[in-house]
Amino acid sequence: MIRFLLLLVAVAICLAIAPFFIDQKGYVLVSFNKTTIEGTIWGFCGLIVLIFTAAFLFYKLVRYLWSLYSKTRHRFFARSEERKQAAIEQGVWSLINGDSEQLELVLENNSVADNWQDVRYALLAKAALQNNDTNKAIALLEKISPANQLKAAKLWLASGDSSTVIGELKALAEAKKATALELKLYAEVLVQQQKWTALEQFMPRLLSKKALTDSQWSILLTSYFLAQPQSQLTDKYQQLPKGVKVKAHSCYLAAMAKTGRLNEIELSLLKMLKKPEQHIELAHILKVSVPGDALKLQASLQDTLKKEPDNQALLLALACLANAHGEYELAARVFDKALNRENSKEYLVQAQLSYSKSAQPQKALDLYL
Fold first, then answer.
1. How far is CA 9 from CA 50, 51, 57, in A?
2. What is this structure's pTM?
3. Backbone phi, psi, residue 37, to 5°
4. Digit-coded pLDDT (tens) for 234-278
5. Cross-strand pairs, 29
6. Which of 42, 88, 283, 345 sits at a 20 to 30 Å CA gap from 2?
7. DSSP alpha helices (H): ranges in the chain?
């Protein structure tokens, strides 16, 4: 723009000084229809310079005013975006700190950017679930866009209504390139809906894809065995594929102990007693036992403890087994030695049983405190 103006000025100057060199005054005549403009070259050049100068100044003024408007508009929307971003960040931090009330307060009273809207609904749904408001959680989950529904599959499962995502999860889980998360979520759906036959068929795929950790396998298989008829526990265990059976061994034994069928699994428990690395697992199995008969196991436990009197896992196992045999005073004495701050909550039920049955109610009460 400036170069163009300079060029016009140069042309005007040339036209202005040309008459002096040719000794002529020089006139300019502009005629348009019935309108005629006549003047000297100097006057015409001056008029052109004035017009273009005014146009240039007007352009600069308009540009300056537009920049002011743009900056003001940008600052207004920037502040709005900053507030939206701050709201979602506060919501996430509230979730991290387990403060569902603050999470609801922040996100219900503030809007968020469009691309965070589904996350807002999911966070509010999680807060509602933490507050045991299932209906509100489901209503919020239904607002999530279809494209992001599967991302909230865990929340749907927690709400007790997995019908929205089960079809798509099943399709994804059955695909060749299913991810570990998709397989895990579908397994949880099968457990929630108690589709045990489908779960049995699905377990080998979970194993081959290494979709579950040991603790997740334990949770899944515990739920599976607890749902089976007591008379079919052994048959169900024997029908499992070899790899799955290895994962299911402890869960099966715990399920049998919980039904009081200790005599049927006593041989397996004796084998665990001979392996030091399985002593904690043995205690966990006996922890859920109801009255049953495993006298040989108790004798072996006591013999082993004579050699290892400070073996805490075996002490806990013996105390639980003594309860199962109705020897509550023995169990109470063993718990006196074995219980500590780390395991008292885990063995609370068994310890209270032994203390209450052995006329030590104060010790049973102290465990609550």
1. 10, 11, 16
2. 0.69
3. -120, 125
4. 999 999 999 999 999 999 999 999 999 999 999 999 999 999 999
5. 38
6. 42
7. 2-21, 41-96, 100-108, 117-130, 134-141, 153-159, 163-174, 180-192, 196-208, 214-226, 233-239, 242-258, 262-273, 279-287, 295-307, 312-324, 328-338, 348-357, 361-366
